[in-house]
Structures are given as C-alpha cells and as structure tokens.
Specification:
The protein is of the alpha+beta class. It is about 40% helix and about 25% strand. Strand 6 and strand 7 (about 110-115) form a beta hairpin.
Length: about 140
C-alpha cells in the first residue's frame, strides 16, 4: 500500500467497515519503540492511555514510555475516502515514505515502511527457534 503525497493512508475497506462499527471511525496513531507506528481504535487507545498515566512518574522507563506513546499520539478520523492523515513527525519517526505495510496485530494495526517490515519478517524467521519456544514459560503451552 501507499501513503499519498500529503501523508494520507487509505484504510482497506474491510477494516474501515469494522472500525466504523467499533469506534465510529475514530483512531489514534502513535509511535512504537521498534520505529513503526501503532494504529488503535480510539476506545482501545483510551484504555491504554489510562494505564500509561497510572505508571510511576519518577520511574525513568515509565516516563520514557509515556513520552513516546502519548507524545506521538494523534487522534484521527477516517475521512469520506477511507483515509487517515499520518503526521510528518510520525512519518519521520517510522521512516515512512511511500510504500508501507499495514499489519493487523490483535487489537491494533502496525504501520511499517514496507522494506523495513520485510526485513523485520526475515529477521524473525531467521531467529525463530522451536526449542526456545517450548522452553518459554509464556509460550511453551501455546498451541496453534
């Protein structure tokens, strides 16, 4: 998919319909520590923002997360052509130019530069080790 010259992203029709029902087409776009962008339905973001603001303000890691996620957060609404505006600051942070990948991940989307996304997938595939998966207490019982 492409960002247009003004930095607008067309949300695929299938997701637009679902988002219209779920959050009245209102989204929040913010930064992710891995230098992609996170796109949340507004209602889901409100819960996350509330949790972020409850973190201890004197903890440097908590403050960094608050600054990153809340500082880059931008409320957007899907327009009549099915697009959302990605700010120039967000595009710069995630190295977004024209070709992008919008990836559904549970309760959100990740928005990546397409080349970086492809490399991220290759790196994940190369480092994937079934023995480590079975040894992980969090993932050892996962059955897919």
């Amino acid at each position: 998919m492409n960002l247009d010259a003004k930095g607008r992203l067309a949300i695929p029709a299938r997701q637009r319909e679902r988002l219209a029902r779920m959050c009245d087409s209102r989204l929040v776009i913010t930064a992710d520590p891995q230098h992609c962008l996170l796109v949340y339905p507004e209602t889901t973001w409100a819960e996350i923002e509330h949790k972020l603001m409850k973190l201890p303000s004197f903890d440097p890691t908590s403050r960094s997360m608050q600054r990153l996620l809340i500082g880059y957060a931008n409320d957007v609404e899907i327009d009549t052509q099915g697009r959302v505006m990605v700010t120039s600051e967000q595009r710069e942070y995630a190295n977004l130019d024209k070709r992008v990948a919008l990836v559904g991940v549970g309760n959100k989307f990740e928005l990546w530069d397409e080349a970086i996304w492809r490399q991220t997938l290759k790196d994940a595939e190369a480092s994937f080790d079934m023995a480590n998966l079975a040894a992980s207490p969090e993932l050892g019982s996962l059955s897919i």
